[in-house]
């Protein structure tokens, strides 16, 4: 299955190319890494993902006047964590999915044990890359800390855990928002934060971009729910309609489709407005924010 293009500007497409090359270089592991494990890691990471999180890292860094070489290790590290979470989320013990990014999921293409290990190995790889390739060491330690917080039990893993345990339960909107803030929003917010940190931005900019990322994260989740409801499997490259079949509470189920769309658009508008002080420097970030609610996959 060939996934459709994602309709971003030429600048974003060439940035995505830069990210792809860097990911591939980092996944050229030596002979001490078993061949099948390396193959599974490369298969999952180098499959056609949108690369939203690494694009956010580099775009935030550019907005702050940073250069790409200093932020690329952080861009790859967030994608490694994201990819591990996708591999594990697809496993039979979690979402039990056969299709991801238009291809068989890692455990379908290889086997369950290999998929678990490929996901496992991507976590330390993320921190290896940050701790070795971000300079100076103090900044590397800060980046490791921020990514560990966003990926850990209070955020990504905690959100996933609450999401799984709330299946078939009638949860309210506040609880739903808390789950998605952590499961989806934290990784988007930390991407922006890492970009700003790598560019040595002042604290107020780091905070502003992180807040922008939180709003964007919620808008992203609402659009993900809407796509799950009415998206086409061929375009999405993953199974659709699964939220309903798994008894999951979603924004369209809680608010209806129209109100969910309105909320996603309002969040993006608020996020975009919060960048007004950055003038034209924020244009690419604004493009990414708008893409998040208009995407078809
Ligand atoms: C296993 C700890 C752990 C967490 C899993 C990734 C995830 C958390 C769940 C997947 C289910 C889901 C719909 C999550 C919400 C949003 C999300 C992370 C969607 C996938 O991200 P995209 O659309 O994917 O950026 P690509 O493939 O383009 O990278």
Commentary on this structure:
By secondary structure, the protein is mainly α. The protein has a single domain, classed as Farnesyl Diphosphate Synthase (Orthogonal Bundle), CATH 1.10.600.10. 70% of the residues lie in helices and 1% in strands. The protein is built from 15 helices and two strands. The protein has helices at residues 10-26, 35-45, 52-63, 68-89, 106-109, 112-133, 137-151, 156-165, 173-198, 203-230, 233-236, 242-245, 251-255, 257-273, 283-294, and strands at residues 99-100, 103-104. It has a two-stranded antiparallel ribbon with strand order 1-2. Strand 1 and strand 2 form a beta hairpin. Helix 6 packs antiparallel against helix 7, helix 9 crosses helix 10 and helix 10 packs antiparallel against helix 14 (257-273). The protein starts with 9 loop residues before the first helix and ends with a helix. Bound molecules: geranylgeranyl diphosphate (GRG). Geranylgeranyl diphosphate (GRG) is lined by residues 49-50, 52, 82, 85-86, 88-89, 101, 156-157, 160, 183-184, 221, 224.
């Amino acid at each position: 299955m060939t996934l459709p293009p994602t309709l971003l500007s030429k600048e974003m497409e060439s940035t995505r190319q830069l990210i792809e090359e860097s990911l591939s270089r980092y996944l050229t592991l030596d002979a001490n890494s078993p061949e099948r494990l390396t193959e599974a890691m490369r298969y999952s990471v180098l499959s056609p993902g949108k690369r939203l999180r690494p694009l956010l890292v580099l775009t935030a860094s550019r907005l702050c006047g940073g250069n790409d070489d200093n932020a690329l290790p952080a861009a790859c590290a967030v994608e490694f964590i994201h990819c591990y979470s996708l591999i594990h989320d697809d496993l039979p013990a979690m979402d039990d999915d056969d299709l991801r990014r238009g291809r068989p999921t890692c455990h379908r293409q290889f086997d369950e044990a290999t998929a678990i290990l490929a996901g496992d190995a991507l976590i330390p790889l993320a921190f290896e890359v940050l701790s070795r390739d971000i300079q100076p060491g103090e900044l590397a330690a800060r980046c490791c800390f921020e990514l560990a917080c966003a990926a850990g039990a209070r955020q990504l893993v905690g959100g996933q855990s609450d999401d799984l345990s709330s299946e078939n339960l009638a949860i309210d909107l506040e609880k739903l928002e808390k789950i998605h803030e952590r499961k989806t929003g934290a990784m988007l917010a930390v991407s922006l934060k890492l970009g700003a940190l790598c560019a040595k931005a002042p604290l107020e900019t780091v905070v502003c971009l992180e807040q922008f990322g939180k709003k964007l994260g919620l808008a992203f989740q609402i659009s993900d729910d809407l796509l799950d409801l009415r998206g086409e499997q061929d375009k999405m490259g993953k199974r659709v309609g699964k939220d309903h079949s798994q008894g999951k509470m979603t924004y369209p189920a809680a608010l209806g489709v129209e109100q969910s769309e309105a909320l996603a658009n309002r969040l993006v508008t608020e996020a975009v407005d919060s960048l007004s002080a950055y003038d034209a420097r924020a244009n690419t970030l604004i493009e990414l924010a708008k893409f998040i609610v208009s995407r078809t996959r």
